Amino acid sequence: MLARRIIPCLDVKDGRVVKGVSFVNLRDAGDPVEVARAYDEQGADELTFLDITASHEKRGIILDVVKRTSEQVFMPLTVGGGIKTLDDIRELLKAGCDKVSINTSAVYDPHFIKSAAERFGSQCIVVAIDAKRTPVVTDSERAAQLAEVSGKLPWSTDLEFRSLFFQGVDETGVHWEVYTHGGRKPTCIDAVAWAMKMEEFGAGEILLTSMDQDGQKNGYDIELTRAVSNAVGIPVIASGGVGNLEHIYEGLIAGRADAALAASIFHYKEYTIREAKEYLRDKGVPVRL
Length: 289
Known about the structure:
single chain, alpha/beta, globular
């Protein structure tokens, strides 16, 4: 069995790490290079930067952060936020990142993922999926939702993609909808079907965040994580909801994820990366120590 990975995530704004609650009340939390170095020393397997500024004018700031970080730490770096073109990916890879994480641009143009994978290789293309449990609705309500979405997604009427959308009533009452723009815009796209399509289009990894659990510290959405992990053959990174080390264990074992991403428990020094890995090792989970 391959070693499971522990991945801390840093929100970067204007060249600084920031911390907040539910994306508000952000406060400065230090220089990203220094924070990255600390995680590297603790034994993190990878590091994810989320560029929350993500505008064209400020892209140079995250490029500088990536360049400075890659010069001082040797774990793989993933950067997400505002990636819209192949040139964006090229510049980030040139700056020293190993992978890019793409969410909204993938939803608005699925073929962008195919082009990116063909150009740069699947190993560096991560598709981020922000998913939320969606309640059962009537056929007419779903039809109205689909009609609204179809006007915004130019590919929505293509027969190739029809199976991605919810159809009618889901009698189980449990499915998950893909959201874009930092979790603000619903899409009517089924998260499990979307993960499968992104694998087909060349994604090398899925970064799966439960919007319901994110920031709650009650643990990952195990049912969601397991559903996506069972549906695809590429690695799945569980994200959203970690409050203690048992949650990481559950995400990797019950959720069948290949890696666990967490932020606050490491940022606020509730646990170190080393402590997390030793905990997992003692429970029989293969990790790199």
